[in-house]
Amino acid sequence: MRLSEPVEWALHCTTVLALVPPDGAVPSSKLAEFHGVPAAYLAKSLQSLSRAGIVESVAGRSGGYRLAKAPADVTLLDVVEAVEGRESSFHCTEIRKRGPARVSPRLYSPVCAIAEAMYRADEAWRAELRNTTLADLLQRLATTIPTQAVAKGTAFLQEVLS
Q1: Parallel, antiparallel, or unpaired for β 64-67 and 55-58?
Q2: pTM of whole model > 0.85?
Q3: pLDDT lower than 70: segments of the chain
Q4: Could you give the number of structural domains in the chain?
């Protein structure tokens, strides 16, 4: 399975927004600049996150986006589904019922063993994402981001928020 780049962008943006004070907001253009991604495409991801209630848009001169929920209340699955949708990563098209080896449809089991395994794998992946929150990510990021990057990122955000 391959997720689109906007999922990565959305995850990074939500972790940054989790660090913004409740009365602050970061413009989408500044989030795009912070991550070095195209502003127009990032705006679409932020709109998807907003529709899902993960972030909220703040109007006005010092407007932008901020997290709409506590980081502990936003799962990675919430972010992925906001950007990619809720469809399963596997779509069975019942090719077992085609070609020269096909038999009467009534002879097939309700779910193909291949589809069944793929659906289980998809659910296991979603369960892992469902069990990991932005708060969990922030905790892990705090120990893995280089000190210089933290200093630069903090300075950037302070400038944007002032």
Answers
A1: antiparallel
A2: yes
A3: 1
A4: 1
